[in-house]
Specification:
The chain has about 575 residues and is of the alpha+beta class. It folds into two domains: about 5-35 and about 265-375 and about 440-540, Serum Albumin, Chain A, Domain 1 (Orthogonal Bundle); about 45-265 and about 385-420, no CATH class. Helices cover about 35% and strands about 15% of the residues. It has 20 helices and 19 strands. It has helices spanning about 5-20, 50-60, 65-80, 120-125, 145-155, 160-170, 180-190, 195-200, 215-230, 230-235, 240-250, 255-260, 290-300, 305, 310-330, 340-345, 350-355, 465-475, 485-490, 520-525; strands at about 40, 45-50, 90-100, 105-110, 175, 215, 265, 270-275, 275-280, 380-385, 390-395, 445-450, 450-460, 490-495, 510-515, 530-535, 540-545, 555, 565. The longest helix is centred in the middle third of the chain and has 21 residues, at about 310-330.
Length: about 575
């Protein structure tokens, strides 16, 4: 073992002072950390991070709506009720299992940068990186187009019926939940300076508190226009013209032409096989294949024998993540602007080469990206399933909490700041360019077994996502957990890797471990050269629906969020 430095031991001991004791749930069976049992149903299921959105989805399913209809309705509700994580000013990705044709369909509904904003603008204005808020990181919002693409292909009920519950809640009001209130209040100091934000999101001059009733009739009006006029009402009608006017008046570049020219892309999901199960992600510009790379590297180890809380397993996981994230920093970008080596990156042979770089006893300070032919984001993830066997894995986000802060006129929503995720390094795959999709953190996931649906799942939260995707799969397949326990289990989070936005890892980054890992494990990880930090809250938000061989849906919801899984 590597001898711990005095500084490392001191930093480790300081984290222990802040660590709470392991939570104990008084349950008669299951894992001791489990917060609840999975929810079981046969006719339909929804799992979201907001209870009212889950109920909206169930109502749609009971009316004969498809899983896609329920997902759209729930996403609309969350855009109103959870503006801290998503909204129609942001982007969307989805994976859909179609029972009719027995295959997965992938949708990339992310938007592109303004065509009128040139690369040299940033250097000419002495900007070394794209700002996190304000007009410059705003890209075309793709969510609404994503809804209509999904609806045209898999929808049953009219869009007016899908948006009606949210329009009603927007006009009549809804109670703000605990975690949403926390993040809402945390966002206010950063965003209250931007035009339109206070008028929409600070009634009475302040953010709402837990239990306050909040109304957003402006968003209700906007959603009514979309329900009546379709996607063109957003991208080519009065909404687009208002966004154009607002951006021009406030130093922005996003234009009517950018909105009118937007399109989503249907893409083929990609997969790797792990322990006999096919794990599916969408290809870049998202980061989903990082989860596949992590799983490929770890597949060669007997993780079950090592044990979930062992320092050996956590060390291997952290090193696999570091390796995958070096490739993520170099290669993940808009495929329309680059030839991306996706199949090489997720191949077993490539994983074998990368695995050989891991020292089983020592944490690496630096890895290079392989040679082949995040920041904390705020997001929502939801999943739905219907009586016909269709399942939807959907993720949607404004990025960085409530987004850019730019809140156009009386439209009732904030524009995203996803453009911050471009690189300003010339020649980088993810280099900023007009009309280009930025690197994206939000990723839906799916698992099939013998070409049948097994698990629709996702974990919201910036760079946390691929790490937690891999951990959910490992928890279920290596450690034998059920779908709820897999999400409740204490999580491992490595931070500080190299990024697609030019940051380089030189010091090995650091590990954050949730309560539930033994002190002896933490001590040994420090002795192996890992930095350990205490952090509260960055471990992501999980939702999942598993389908068993007898056709029963097993729903799970994140105990760290406000939401719930429910079925009928």
């Amino acid at each position: 073992m590597v001898r711990a430095t005095t500084a490392a031991v001191g930093a480790f001991l300081s984290t222990l002072l802040f660590s709470a004791s392991v939570s104990a749930y008084d349950r008669v069976n299951g894992e001791g950390f489990a917060s609840r049992s999975p929810v079981l149903a046969t006719q339909g299921m929804a799992a979201t991070s907001h209870p009212l959105a889950t109920q909206v989805a169930l109502d749609i399913l009971k009316k004969g709506g498809s899983a896609v209809d329920a997902a759209i309705a729930a996403n609309a509700a969350q855009g109103l009720m959870e503006p801290t994580g998503n909204g129609i000013g942001g982007d969307l990705f989805a994976i859909v299992w179609s029972a009719k044709d027995k295959k997965l369909h992938g949708l990339n509904a992310s938007g592109r940068s303004p065509k009128s904003l040139p690369f040299n603008y940033f250097a000419d204005n002495n900007l070394e990186k794209i700002p996190s808020h304000g007009p410059l990181p705003v890209s075309v919002p793709g969510a609404v187009d994503g809804w209509f693409e999904l609806h045209e292909k898999f929808g049953k009920l009219p869009m007016q019926e899908l948006l009606a519950p949210t329009i009603r809640y927007a006009n009549e009001g809804f109670p703000v939940t605990q975690l949403v209130a926390y993040y809402w209040n945390r966002s206010v100091p950063k965003l209250e300076q931007f035009p339109g934000f206070q008028e929409t999101y600070m009634p009475g001059g302040k953010a709402p508190q837990e239990g306050d009733l909040f109304r957003n009739p402006r968003l209700g009006d906007t959603l009514q226009k979309i329900a009546d006029g379709g996607r063109d009402a957003f991208y080519k009608g009065d909404i687009a013209r208002e966004i154009d006017r607002y951006m021009k008046a406030n130093g922005g570049f996003l234009s009517y032409e950018d909105l009118a020219g937007h399109t989503s892309d249907w893409v083929e999901p990609v997969s790797t096989n792990y322990r006999g199960y096919d794990v599916w992600e969408l290809p870049p510009n998202g980061q989903g294949i990082a989860a596949l790379q992590i799983l490929n590297i770890l597949e060669a180890y007997d993780l079950k024998k090592l044990g979930r809380t062992s320092p050996e397993y956590i060390h291997l996981f952290a090193e696999a993540k570091k390796l995958a994230f070096e490739d993520r920093a170099k290669y993940y970008a808009d495929p329309d602007f680059n030839q991306l080596p996706v199949q090489e990156l997720i191949s077993k042979s490539y994983a074998e080469k990368r695995r050989a770089l891991i020292d089983p006893n020592k944490a690496a300070k630096r890895y290079e990206a392989g040679t082949v032919a995040l920041r904390h984001g705020d997001t929502i993830y939801l999943t739905t399933a219907d009586k016909d066997g269709n399942m939807v894995s959907l993720i949607q986000s404004n990025y960085r909490g409530m987004g850019s802060g730019m809140t156009p006129g009386d439209l009732g929503f904030i524009l995203q700041d996803r453009g911050e995720m471009f690189s300003l390094q010339e020649g980088h795959f993810n280099q900023y360019a007009p009309g280009k999709r930025p690197f994206h953190t939000i990723i839906p996931a799916f698992v099939t077994k013998d070409d049948k649906p097994w698990l629709s799942f996702g974990v919201m939260g910036g760079a946390t996502q691929p790490q937690m995707h891999a951990q959910i799969v490992i928890n279920m397949l290596d450690f034998g957990m059920n779908v709820q326990e897999a999400g409740d289990a204490p999580r491992i989070l490595h931070s500080g890797s190299s990024q697609p936005t030019d940051e380089l890892m030189e010091d090995g980054g650091y590990l954050s471990l949730e309560d539930g890992f033994p002190m002896e494990t933490r001590r040994q990880l420090v002795q192996m050269g890992h930095q350990i930090r205490f952090e509260s809250g960055p471990y992501g938000g999980y939702q999942a629906i598993q389908k068993t061989e007898n056709g029963v849906y097993h729903g799970a919801s994140e105990s760290r969020k406000d939401g719930q899984a429910a079925g009928y």
